[in-house]
Amino acid sequence: MQTSQFQKPNPHYDIIILGASGFTGKYVVKEALKFLNTPSSPLKTLALAGRSHEKLTKTLQWAAHPSSPPPDVSIIIADTTHPPSLLSLCNQTKLLLNCVGPYRIHGDPVVAACASSGCDYLDITGEPEFMEKMEVKYHEKAVETGSLIVSACGFDSIPAEIGVMFNTRQWVAPAVPNHVTAYVSLESDKKIVGNFATYESAVLGVGNMDKLQELRRSRPRKPRPVIPGPPPPKGPIIEYQEKLGLRAVKLPSADAVVVRRTLVTLMENPHGLPGINESPEHTEKREAYWSSVKPAHFGVKIASKSLLGIYRIIGVGIFLGLLSRISFGRWLLLKFPSFFSFGWFRKTGPSEEEVRSASFKMWFVGYGFSDSSLASERNSKPDMQIITRVMGPEIGYVTTPISLIQCALIVLSQRENLPKGGVYTPGIVFGPDLQERLQENGVSFDLVSKTALRGRPAA
Ligand SMILES: NC(=O)c1ccc[n+]([C@@H]2O[C@H](COP(=O)([O-])OP(=O)(O)OC[C@H]3O[C@@H](n4cnc5c(N)ncnc54)[C@H](OP(=O)(O)O)[C@@H]3O)[C@@H](O)[C@H]2O)c1
C-alpha cells in the first residue's frame, strides 16, 4: 500500500462524529450504533465529539435506548472555534463525520483540519457555496495529504446522485437520455417538520446567493458534459405531471449542482476515479458502472398532490427570496421559523413520532432518444421516456443518517478502492458501491416504466 508522510500509523478510532449532540447528530449516532462491532462491520471503534460532555452523554443514552450505552464509545470535547481541538480529533480518527451546521458558519475549520492532517471527512451539508468553496480552498492540499473530503452525504444529495445514475443506466444503447427531472414528494400521516438548523442554512444560503455567483465567476470555467440533443424546454412554473398525478415547482436545492459537479468529474475521468491501491475486481466493477452511466440535464422539483400544497411552497420561496437578502429580513425569518415556513420548520424539530411516520418518494422522469442518432437531427425531440423511483423513510433524520453511515462504511471497508485524497462529490466516490447498500438499509430503487413517445413531452 502507498504511504505518505501524512499517513497516521494507527488512529485510535474508526469514526468520530462531530456535532453528535445535535438534532441530526443524535440520529446519526443511533444509526452508527447499529453497525458498531457487529459481525463483518468495519466499524470497531467510535467516539462522539462536541462542546458539551453532558449533552454528548445524553445523546449516547438516547441513541442506545432501550439498551444501555456501549461502554467503549468515548466522548471528546471539541469546538469548531478552537482549531487545535479539531486537529486533535483528526489525529485520533480515520474518518470524521461532521454534523455541525450551518456549514457556512462552522464548516471551514473542520475541513481545514482534515485536509491538513490527512484525515478523511464526510458531512451532510446541502449548502452549494460551502461545498464549492471547500473544493477551491482545500482540494490540492487534500490530494497531497491523502484526505478524502466528501460533502452532501445526506438526503442532500445521495438519493439524487444515486437516483439519477440509476435512471441513466436504464437507457440501453442505442438509446440515450437527454434530461431527467426528479420530483420529490414528502409523505406522512402526521406533520412534516424539519429542525431549525436546516431552515437557517437555507435562509443564509438564499441571502448570500450573490456570493455563490461571485465564487463561480472567479473560477476557471469547467467544460460542460456533452449531452445528446437540445437542452430541455423551460416549461411552466407550476407543472402538472400527469403520469404521477402530482403538481410540482422547481426546488433550488443543492442536488442539481452536486449532480452537475459529478458529471463534470466524470467527463474528466470517464472511468470514474481510480482507487489508491485498487483491487482488480474493483477496477472492473468501477469501469463497468461508469461506462453505463450517461450524462443528462438534471433538475429537481418539489411535488404535491394538492394545489394548495404547491401554493404554500411558493409562499415560503417568496418569503425567503424577499426577506433573506436584508439583515432585518433575515432576523425576522430566523426569529419566526414556524410562521414563515407555514409550520414546516420548528426550533424544537420534529417529534420522534413525526420522524417515524414520514417518508419520501423521489420520481425520476427521464426523456431521451430511442437511438442516439436521432439526437443530432434538426429539431429533434425526445421519443422515449423512462421513469424510475427512489423511496425511503423520513428524509432529514432517518434517510440522512442511513446515507451518511453507509458512505462511512464504504470508506472504512474499501479505503484502498477509493481515491487517495481530494474534495469530491459523493456520486463520483461512492457511485459503484452505494446503491446496493442503500437498498439493504431501507432505501429502494425501482424501474417504473419505459415508454415510447410520439410528440414532444411536456418538460
Ligand atoms: N443533507 C440533509 O438532508 C440534512 C439533513 C439534516 C440536517 N442537515 C444539516 O445538518 C446540520 C445540523 O443540523 P441539526 O438540525 O442537527 O442542527 P443542531 O440541532 O443545531 O445541531 C448542531 C450541532 O452542532 C454543534 N455545534 C454548534 N456550534 C458548535 C461549535 N462551535 N463547535 C462544535 N460543535 C458545535 C451543536 O453542539 P451543542 O449541542 O453543543 O450546541 C450541535 O451538536 C445543518 O447544517 C443541517 O442543514 C442536512
From TrEMBL:
Lineage: superkingdom: Eukaryota
Regions that span the bilayer: 309-328
The biological processes this protein is annotated with in GO are: glycolipid biosynthetic process
Spell out the SUPFAM superfamilies in the cross-references.
Answer: NAD(P)-binding Rossmann-fold domains
Boundaries of each Saccharopine dehydrogenase NADP binding domain copy?
A: 15-150
Give UniProt keywords alphabetically.
Membrane, Transmembrane, Transmembrane helix
Q: What's an example GO cellular component term for this entry? A: plasma membrane
Query: Which Pfam families does the UniProt record give?
Result: Sacchrp_dh_NADP
Looking up InterPro entries in the UniProt record yields: NAD(P)-bd_dom_sf, Saccharopine_DH-like_oxidrdct, Sacchrp_dh_NADP-bd
The text of the family note is:
Belongs to the saccharopine dehydrogenase family.
Spell out the protein name for this chain: Saccharopine dehydrogenase NADP binding domain-containing protein
